[in-house]
């Protein structure tokens, strides 16, 4: 098992298909989780989930550029609570662009604990400090308010709406390497002053 990163409550590690498929299936067989991710992300059985994990690892090895998708493990229970990813954004034909995205998918039982923000923050740091990326994006479907809120908590800047990636209309958020500590500072000092997600969305 390769541990990539660690936070106060979480371990970010590579997937182990033979061991993790059942837990990954609990995440990706849930229509509430896949609602904003598209039909293709929905797993229909544990075996196809396992194959998907195997394929993801193969693709990671082929790219060999430090990007990938990893399991988020809750330290306290050693349960897999989700996925965190750092990948090249695909264009409308599915081909990788030179733009990188951070993304988060949590099993429903682990929503509302701030895990996506905690994992997202350490993944952004990894992208900037280890991969030396100058900028990292997040793309979010218009009504995915929980995810938009996470981009805010991470200090990512809303850029507007784009159809450059995945062949669909998405909201684009951006964090520059020079601003990587901004989210942390805002998180510590923002308290009650956080602006509402609805207000952010209505800016588009
Ligand atoms: C997106 C996701 C990771 C967020 O999970 P989470 O960390 O548990 O997020 P929370 O439930 O703590 O919500 C984050 C924030 O959004 C707010 N929020 C949640 N659902 C909301 C909704 N329907 N409308 C408005 N705000 C909402 C929460 O109040 C919270 O705001 P706060 O920080 O001000 O309290 C989780 O919902 C998920 O895995 N969804 C499925 C996969 C997905 O869509 N991933 C994103 C793809 S871009």
Description:
This protein has 204 residues and is of the alpha+beta class. The protein has one domain: Aminopeptidase (3-Layer(aba) Sandwich), CATH 3.40.630.30. Helices cover 36% and strands 27% of the residues. The chain has 7 helices and 8 strands. It has helices at residues 17-28, 31-34, 46-63, 115-129, 145-153, 182-190, 197-202, and strands at residues 3-6, 10-13, 68-74, 80-90, 96-106, 135-140, 157-162, 170-176. It has a 5-stranded antiparallel beta sheet, with helices on both faces. Strand 7 and strand 8 form a beta hairpin. Helix 1 packs across helix 3 (46-63). The longest helix is centred in the N-terminal third of the chain and has 18 residues, at 46-63. The radius of gyration is 16 Å and the shape is globular. It starts with a strand and ends with a helix. The model is unreliable at 188-204 (pLDDT under 50). It binds coenzyme A (COA). Coenzyme A is lined by residues 33, 36-37, 103-106, 111-112, 114-116, 140, 144-147, 149-150, 153, 194, 197. Coenzyme A binds at residues 33, 36-37, 103-106, 111-112, 114-116, 140, 144-147, 149-150, 153, 194, 197.
Write the layout of secondary structure elements.
Blueprint: E1 3-6, E2 10-13, H1 17-28, H2 31-34, H3 46-63, E3 68-74, E4 80-90, E5 96-106, H4 115-129, E6 135-140, H5 145-153, E7 157-162, E8 170-176, H6 182-190, H7 197-202
Antiparallel strand pairs: 1-2, 2-3, 3-4, 4-5, 6-8, 7-8
Helix pairs in contact: 1-3
The structure holds coenzyme A.
The site of coenzyme A has 22 residues, from strand 5, helix 4 and helix 5.
């Amino acid at each position: 098992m390769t541990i990539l990163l660690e936070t106060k409550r979480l371990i970010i590690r590579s997937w182990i298909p033979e061991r993790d498929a059942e837990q990954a299936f609990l995440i990706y067989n849930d229509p509430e989780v896949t609602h904003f991710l598209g039909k293709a992300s929905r797993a229909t059985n544990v075996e196809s989930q396992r194959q998907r994990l195997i394929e993801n690892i193969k693709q990671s090895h082929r790219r060999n550029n430090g990007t990938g998708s990893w399991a988020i493990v809750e330290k306290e229970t050693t349960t897999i609570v989700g996925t965190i990813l750092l990948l090249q954004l695909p264009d409308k034909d599915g081909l990788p662009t030179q733009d990188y995205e951070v993304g988060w998918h949590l099993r429903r039982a682990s929503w509302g604990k701030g895990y996506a923000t905690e994992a997202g923050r350490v993944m952004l740091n990894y992208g900037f400090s280890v991969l030396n990326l100058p900028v990292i994006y997040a793309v979010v479907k218009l009504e995915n308010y929980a995810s938009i809120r996470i981009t805010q908590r991470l200090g990512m800047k809303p850029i507007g709406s784009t159809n450059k990636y995945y062949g669909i209309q998405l909201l684009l958020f951006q964090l520059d390497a020079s601003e990587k500590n901004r989210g942390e500072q805002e998180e510590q000092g923002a308290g009650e002053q956080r602006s509402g997600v609805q207000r952010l969305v209505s800016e588009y």
